Amino acid sequence: MYENKVVNIIVGGIGGTGTIMCSNIIAYSAFLAGYDVRKSEIHGMSQRGGSVSSDVRFGKVVFSPMVPDGEGDFLLLLHPDELENNLYRLRESGVVIGPELLLGDEKDLSLLNEPKFAPVNQKNFNICLLGALSRYLDIPYKCWQESIFTNLPPKVHDLNKGVFEIGMELVKL
Amino acid sequence: MKKLMFGNEAIALAGIHTGITLGTGYPGTPSTEILEFFSELGGRAQWCPNEKVALELGIGVAYAGGNALVTMKHVGLNVASDPLFTVAYTGVEGALVIISADDPDMHSSQNEQDNRNYARSAGVMMLEPSDAQECYDFFIEAVKLSREWKLPVILRPTTRVCHSMSIVEFEDKKYEPVQPKEYIPDKPGRVMIPGYARPAHRRLREKLARIKQWNETSHLNKEIIKSDELGIITSGVSYLHVLEAEPNASILKIGMCYPFPSELVRNFVKKHKRCIIIEEGDPYLVENCRYYGIQVDEKPEMYRFGELNVNRVRRILSGDTSPEPPVKRGRPPRLCVGCPHRAVFTVLGKLNCIVAGDIGCYTLSVLPPFQSMDSCVCMGASIGVGLGLRHSLPPEEAKRVVSVIGDSTFIHSGLPGVVEMVYNPPPTGHVIIVLDNGTTAMTGMQEHPGTGKKLNHEPTNRVVIEDVAKAIGVENVVVVERVSQFEKELKEALENGKTNFLVVRRTCELLKRKQEKSKSEEKVEEKTNV
Asked: Residue B441 maps to which CATH number?
């Protein structure tokens, strides 16, 4: 499907909330699926609540580790406030995958802790969004699963598998 | 074997595969993870009080015939530059590879100095990797070159190389660290009195001339010929941006930038109608070309600042010097909720102090809502700068000056400042405040001599900061463990005209959470084991 095309994903979030982990999971899934992969991020000050974004690129051959401005295919938005900083990096046909898939117009992430979203909550909704993203990408489900299991501690494997699948259901293609 | 890894991880793995005897360094973004990965992979690694000491240890290891890995960020090489310039003269017996991780665009630094200039001025070989695979390959090459020429080598990755992931192919087998057997003395070679240093300098220059010859045809440099129209000369991560931005141009990628392979470049330039140099930072390759009389185009001055990327390379190639869209940086980092530094800076603001600051999380106190730091120059500078202000301002102003420094920074280069304060006390006295949060927080919770734990978190001797200050002879040494007590102690110190040293001790909030988390995980494990 993407034989001659590089897929550009930007993950935008706030330091300390799993932005880097999310991009690790995407990159490793693409690696397991046999693509050339490059990923880049700035995490010098990331633990101090600042904006963090990470670029993941995969395809047959990838050169620069950074997504050129205006060439992003997907923005995985982990915090509603980060839309503005990252939107200009998407191409016109680019897709934003963010908390609004669950919350609609509500911007308060703590609402994710309400029982109606269970087992999704504020801590694991990143994985849920990854499930949504996965629907757009030519990466087999088993690669996602192995990547999640490799990147997260065993005690949360079952929970996150379920949460990922809920995310997959959010996207109707 | 193939693995997806960070540049820093690839360097660590290459360290294992080249039998590094000892890895030393001081934490600094973007270099920090190298020694951490190296230690996790089973390598012997340790944090040193600062980069100078780290390099000196490396020199000792390499004099003994071992293989030394020394890591630091670009500004760390300033601290280590004293031994650097002279170890170039003495050379080494084993291998000495120094990692200088540069930070173009200052993602987490106070300047964006280009350390390729150090290679040229110290006369030290330098390799520039462009991605994780090259971090691995070039490190192995650096160890070989160092052993072969008996000289130190600098590997210079940048933030986008250290903190980018790509696929690395390597041979997975069992490797053992190099273990020297006995000391082989070389007094004229290693004791740099003038009589021995003069011939040593000549030896170095003679070797560098031979290395330059070798580099003219070295496999470390890569030539891709596409046509005789446009040729691009580049190095480091810029190479990857160039490949993407202009797939039809010929490319000469310089892997070993010092000694500069002038004839290789000259021949490449001859083959093309137009050649341009695309390099991040200073015009290092450009200046070398000028020195050797090679005609090349260069990027406009506006692209000296910050990092390059595909968009900027396209602009350079099309000669676009129109103003660039401003970089969106999003929300700035700030002091964490619950950070113990917060209360300190609130008090400093309230008492209208002039704050000579230092490098660490607490530098963020310059931003709202605190805005209570007045200077930040380099590691340890708070004390010297504070004393200079005290010595020169009129007494009423001088009395407001305090020096604020973190625990790890204090151990890095604060000690000589305390000696200076005791030796030449300002007429109004002085106040040093050490913010001791029990970790090197800014770079991601590394241990240091004041935590009493080694790089791998195992217990070792602890340097007690307040005891050091007492031993040096500071008049008033106070440890403040309750934040509510701080204002009173500070007021007294500002009034007493003595030399003062306040240690504000409270664990970093992030470290506390991390420790609690690992404790609860241990408990879970215990339960499951039962």
From this structure: 3.40.50.970
